[in-house]
Design brief:
The structure holds two protein chains of two kinds. Chain A is built from eight helices and three strands, in the order H-E-H-H-H-E-E-H-H-H-H. By secondary structure, chain A is mainly alpha-helical. In chain B, strands 1-2 form a two-stranded antiparallel sheet. Among the domains of chain B are: 38 residues, no CATH class; 58 residues, no CATH class. Classes of the chains: A mainly alpha, B mainly alpha. Chain B: It is found in: Mitochondrion.
């Protein structure tokens, strides 16, 4: 039994998840469920785009596939179809989160791409850009690429992104030491590994000097002892 | 036991004269085995019968005889205590039970704290989600509120509530486990 459910239960779970995804644009579930629901969602949107059935007939078909049909079916056939007319695939996105407190199950956010309501990736990248701008440092290559990918098919994406960045600047850096930590990685991966150093640490003037002073002073003390 | 005592007290209250003043305890004499009729193998009592018999006896005698011990039936139990060394070898030797180092850590570009690689930083996610919640609450139509011509009417109909400690606890939700913020990367 996949996901600890019988076939019938699983079908209902997925139908429920997909319906909520259409209604709310974003859902938070475990990884396994999200992966199954993602495939179903993609298929549904593709089917809606490519169908040759007359609208009434297709509508009845959709009524058998979704829940809360009075809200989901018109939205799928109207808003979502219009939104994804330039895309051939990749209508959804999975973002990994930390495991859930309690049962430690891997959590993810499953969201529809280019939704203007609750798009976590859009806001996360906007927050990164806002932080860099507040610190007065230029965008690193990875962030630049991320922004470009994000706004590729989006309608009025640039304007909306700028607006979100301004909101992020106002809302999310209210703590005193929020901007103390400067970006230190020169590598484009924005990551580092403790075992093998595939990154260069950017020197920070005073802080770096004092560290070296401490290091250089230590062996002298040992010698004197 | 307590029932028996109460019953006895009840009888005492009816009238002492009705009862005999001296009572002798009933004595059961052990009868030698050769006097008893011999049992065949088929008649031999099963464990269940024996247990039920013991339970009956225990009930009659006021549970003075222990049910599980001293009745000739033994339950499975280890013979010896596991030594300190053996226990520690079992519990702490296997590498799979050690605390492991986390090498899959990154710096969150949005807040500068540690985060798991290929995962979102939970601090930033919760911050954004909280903002969405406030934003969506503003967009909702305001809840219906009754209007009163005379403010006294409102006071009479809806007198003020006092918040008890229990209500306060429920409202603040301090009992929930909160995810701590990770450490900043090499400050």
């Amino acid at each position: 039994m996949p996901l600890g459910r019988s076939a019938k239960m699983l079908h209902h779970t997925m139908r429920n998840l997909v319906s909520s995804l259409i209604e709310n644009e974003s859902v938070k579930t475990t990884f396994g469920k999200a992966k199954t629901a993602q495939g179903m969602m993609e298929n549904l949107i593709l089917k809606t785009k490519r169908t040759k059935l007359p609208p009434n007939q297709f509508k009845t078909e959709l009524y058998g596939m979704l829940y809360n049909q009075d809200r989901t079916v018109p939205k799928l056939m109207g808003e979502l179809k219009e939104r994804y007319k330039d895309r051939n695939s990749g209508f959804t996105r999975i973002l990994k989160l930390e495991p859930r407190i309690g049962d430690n199950s891997p959590q993810v956010i499953l969201e529809l791409v280019d939704n203007g309501v609750r798009e976590m990736k859009f806001w996360y990248i906007a927050k990164v850009v806002a932080r860099l701008e507040l610190q007065g440092s230029p965008l690193d290559p990875l962030t630049e690429k991320n922004v470009k990918d994000l706004l590729l098919y989006r309608k009025d994406g640039q304007a909306e992104f700028r607006k979100t960045v301004e909101t992020c600047k106002k809302e999310f850096f209210k703590e005193e030491d929020a901007l103390d930590n400067l970006p230190r990685m020169k590598s484009t991966t924005n990551g580092f590994h403790r075992a093998f150093r595939n990154f260069d640490v950017v020197s920070r003037g005073g802080v770096e000097k004092s560290e070296t002073d401490v290091k250089s002073s230590e062996p002298e003390n040992k010698d004197s002892q | 036991m307590s029932y028996a005592l109460r019953g006895a007290l009840g009888i005492m209250s009816i009238g002492e004269a009705l009862l005999p003043k001296i009572t002798l305890p009933s004595i059961t004499l052990p009868i030698p085995s050769f006097l008893n009729p011999k049992r065949t193998q088929e008649d031999a009592p099963t464990i269940e019968e024996k247990l039920s018999e013991i339970a009956e006896n225990a009930a009659n005698k006021g549970a003075k005889v222990p049910f599980f011990t001293g009745n000739g039936i033994y339950l499975a139990a280890p013979k010896k205590k596991r030594s300190h060394m053996k226990r520690r070898l079992r519990v702490y030797t296997p590498g799979s039970k050690h605390v492991k180092l986390k090498n899959e850590l990154n710096r969150c570009p949005a807040c500068g704290h540690y985060k798991r690689a290929h995962h979102l930083c939970m601090n930033c996610v919760s911050q954004i989600q909280q903002y969405w919640k406030q934003r969506d609450a503003k967009l909702k139509p305001p809840a219906y509120k009754e209007e009163f011509a005379n403010p006294l009417d409102e006071q009479v109909l809806y007198p003020g509530k006092t918040e008890r400690a229990y209500d306060r606890k429920l409202r603040l939700k301090d009992y929930l486990v909160k995810r701590p913020k990770t450490l900043p990367v090499e400050k």
